[in-house]
């Protein structure tokens, strides 16, 4: 992004900040007054068009954050607001011709962003898109087996230790964890039966060999999945405001602690919260 573009972005950000103050106050108020026990330690509220660009997936390279919307990728500073760069047309024409119209959950690995791409409501082409983490441009993609991945690919995550990519066989009620090798052309490694089906996984990351998956179930819970045996446990409930939509999650290091960062869209869909959960 050029210095001129950065200047324009800063000016527009300032204008929007002033204009959107009432909307920010309103959405904060709705969140504060809603029922449900919350455990988030901090939250950032993004309102207006900024919420759209933070409406699907989130991942981190350890210093900065990456967000997806249905068709865009952006990179921000760790504050989740300060824009570094963006790709507002992250689905190229080649994939649009296959019907791809949705970018889902993200995962950073080895200088690349791995993303679940979908031909929503059709489910013929579950695709793993691989984007350069600096330019946010698509560098390669893999068309996955639609007979195994039966209702799209709303999320993927990659284990930084093994290079294995994980996803599930069904977007709403998964029964199997599917494992692929990113170092070998996304070759299938194994399938693991799940002990239970976390409903509507929206995004996941691997921490110390264990998968943490954020869902949009009744309590927008985060689950733990053990990839060696498929055991599933609930980590905690997010208990978002009724009508909100739980989205993706990632991990960051902050003040010497591991922090789980999860997103959600507010109930009137004009704002997105980026919430932090202290993770011992």
Describe this structure in words.
With 280 residues, the chain is mainly β. The chain has one domain (3-279): Tachylectin-2, Chain A (5 Propeller). Helix content is 14%, strand content 42%. It has four helices and 20 strands. It has helices spanning 3-19, 21-33, 49-52, 93-96, and strands at 42-47, 58-60, 65-68, 73-76, 83-87, 102-109, 112-118, 127-132, 138-143, 157-158, 164-168, 176-181, 187-193, 201-207, 210-215, 222-225, 232-236, 245-254, 257-265, 271-279. A four-stranded antiparallel beta sheet has the order 1-20-19-18. A four-stranded antiparallel beta sheet has the order 2-3-4-5, with no helix packed on it. The protein has a four-stranded antiparallel beta sheet with strand order 6-7-8-9, with no helix packed on it. Strand 12 and strand 13 (187-193) form a beta hairpin. The N and C termini lie far apart (37 Å).
**Element order: H for helix, E for strand:** HHEHEEEEHEEEEEEEEEEEEEEE
User: What's the CATH topology name?
Assistant: Tachylectin-2, Chain A
Strand order of the largest sheet: 1-20-19-18
Largest sheet: 4 strands, antiparallel
**Secondary structural class:** mainly beta
Task: Give the domain tally.
Answer: 1
Question: Could you say what the CATH architecture is?
Answer: 5 Propeller
Shape field: globular
| CATH superfamily label | Glycosyl hydrolase domain, family 43
At the first level of CATH, the class is: Mainly Beta
Number of strands: 20
Q: What fraction of residues sit in β-strands?
A: 35-45%
- In whole angstroms, how far apart are the ends? 37 Å
How many helices? The count is 4
Helical residues, percent: 10-25%
Mean pLDDT: 92
Q: pLDDT below 50 for ≥5 consecutive residues: which ranges?
A: none
**Rg, Cα atoms, Å:** 18 Å
């Amino acid at each position: 992004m050029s210095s001129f573009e950065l200047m324009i972005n800063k000016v527009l950000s300032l204008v929007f900040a002033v204009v959107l103050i009432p909307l920010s106050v309103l959405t904060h108020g709705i969140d504060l007054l809603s029922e449900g026990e919350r455990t988030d330690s901090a939250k950032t509220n993004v309102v207006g068009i900024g919420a759209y660009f933070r409406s699907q997936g989130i991942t981190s390279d350890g210093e900065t954050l990456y967000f997806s919307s249905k068709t865009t990728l952006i990179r921000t500073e760790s504050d989740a607001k300060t824009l570094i760069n963006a790709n507002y047309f992250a689905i190229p024409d080649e994939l649009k011709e296959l019907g791809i119209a949705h970018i889902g959950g993200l995962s950073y690995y080895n200088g690349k962003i791995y993303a679940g791409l979908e031909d929503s409501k059709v489910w013929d082409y579950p695709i793993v898109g691989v984007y350069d983490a600096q330019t946010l441009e698509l560098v390669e993609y893999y068309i996955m087996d639609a007979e195994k991945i039966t209702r799209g690919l709303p999320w993927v995550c990659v284990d930084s230790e093994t290079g294995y990519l994980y996803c599930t066989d069904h977007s709403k009620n998964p029964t199997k964890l599917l494992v692929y090798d990113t170092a070998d052309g996304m070759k299938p490694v194994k399938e693991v039966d799940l002990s239970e089906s976390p409903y509507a996984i929206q995004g996941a990351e691997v921490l110390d060999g264990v998968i943490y998956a954020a869902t949009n179930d009744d309590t927008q819970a985060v689950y733990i999945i053990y990839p060696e045996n498929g055991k599933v446990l609930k980590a905690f409930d997010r208990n978002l405001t009724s009508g909100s939509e739980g989205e993706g999650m990632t991990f960051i290091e902050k003040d010497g602690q591991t922090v789980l960062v999860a997103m959600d869209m507010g109930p009137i869909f004009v704002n997105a919260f980026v919430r932090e959960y202290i993770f011992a």
